[in-house]
Amino acid sequence: MHRNPISEESLTDENAVLEGLMRKEKYISSYFLYDREGSRLFQRIMKMPEYYLYEAEFEILSEKGDEIRQALPFYKKPYKVIELGAGDGSKTVELLRHLMKNESFKGYLPIDISSEATQELSIRLAKEIPHLEVNPIHGNYDEELARLIPPDESVLLLFLGSNIGNFTSGRMRKLMKGFGKDLKSGDAILIGFDLKKHPRLIQKAYDDVQGITRAFNLNLLARFNREFGADFQSDQFDFYSTYDPVSGEVRSYLVSLINQEVHFLSAGRKVTFEKNELIHTETPKKFDVEEIEKLFLDSGFFDLQIWKDHNDYYADVLAVRR
Fold first, then answer.
1. pLDDT of residue 2
2. Candidate CATH numbers 3.40.720.10, 3.40.50.150, 3.50.50.60, 2.30.30.90; the one for domain 1-87+100-140+149-322
3. Three-state SS for 237?
4. Is residue 68 exposed (0-12), middle (13-18) or buried (19+ Cβ within 10 Å)?
5. What's the CA gap between 168 and 175, in Å, rounded?
6. 99-122: pLDDT as tens digits
7. Which class for 158: exposed (0-12), middle (13-18), buried (19 or more C-beta within 10 A)?
8. Residue 3 CA to chain centroid, in angstroms?
9. On the CB side of 15, how many CA atoms lie within 13 Å of its CA?
10. In this structure, are residues 79 and 155 in contact, taking their beta carbons and an 8 Å threshold?
11. Backbone CA torsion sign across 83, 86, 91, 97
12. Mind listing the pLDDT tens digit for each residue in 136-171?
């Protein structure tokens, strides 16, 4: 899973949840996974030995940060860094340390749906990189990005953590084309991609023996009970995850263990579940290099440069807006 701060639904819209649960193939947007408890559980997931993504990208940004800095197309022109879905910024800090070696780097704008996350990140950066100008933005960057691109300064747009893989293929292409539309000619973008690898490595990362990923998904039900007055019984659901190495998709589900009805009291509606019926919660995608190149080129970017961790598990890709 990945932190996914772009939503196709409104966070406060109970109808969006009910609409997904009323479908023949039930689903809940992965956007809803990240309430306070969900974010806490995700932090635990990132520390699991099976969850290779965090360490792989941390390695790239810390060890290859100077190479990335030197590859930026700005030369001595001033530029700002805008990060989408910044979260706690623990990996980004490593890259920012390298970027600070150039006087042309003029500031950092982290965007996240969690005001708590951006506040904590600002406090951390004030201590660790005190001369860096930080202007956090609390909001959904699907709406904010276009107005945040400065017309008279170059921009490096960051989209790390393999967030790009958390969208359907159509939504992913639309998002990339949107980046190409919003950025100016000569601006740059750095995106993190989880690469295809041995299927068992991926399976273990998304279905850990400690059960943290299971708790992360089941927390959805507790959230809906709290926020929407639902009466889910969490012990009547289980978690299941599977990986297709051909498509590169991990598919995660909640499974109803019995025939049951769940009531959303505030909306006055109920949802019926059959025994073994599935609720689809997320579909993180893994990529090969050919897919990555096509995604960039079709979206108006060129001059791709790729950095991988030493295991070839993960890639950060830099490209320039044509």
1. 46
2. 3.40.50.150
3. strand
4. buried
5. 10
6. 999 999 999 999 987 777 888 899
7. buried
8. 3
9. 1
10. yes
11. positive
12. 988 776 666 788 888 889 999 999 999 999 998 999
Mention every residue, 6+ apart, whose C-beta is less than 8 A from residue 287: 165, 193, 194, 195, 196, 248, 315
Give all strands of the β-sheet with 154-159 in edge-to-edge order. Answer: 137-138, 105-112, 79-84, 154-159, 188-194, 314-321, 301-308
The Cα 240–Cα 279 span in angstroms is: 10
Q: pLDDT of 248-259, one tens digit each?
A: 999 999 999 999
Query: Which two tokens mark 274?
Result: 């059959």
Does the pLDDT at position 8 exceed 70?
no
Q: What is the DSSP letter of 30?
A: G
CA pair distance 163, 91, nearest whole angstrom:
14
Structural domain boundaries of the chain? Answer: 1-87+100-140+149-322
Strands 105-112 and 269-273: unpaired
Two structure tokens written together for 127: 């201590």
Q: Is 55 helix (H, G, I), strand (E, B) or coil?
A: helix
Is the CB of residue 293 less than 8 Å from the CB of residue 169? no
Ramachandran bin of 217, using left for φ above 0, alpha for ψ from -120 to 50, beta for the remaining angles: alpha
Instruction: List, in order, residues 6 or more apart from 269 with CB less than 8 Å away.
Output: 18, 263
Reported as type and span, the H/E element at residue 61 is helix 52-63
Using the structure block, give the residue that is written with the tokens 């009466």: 231
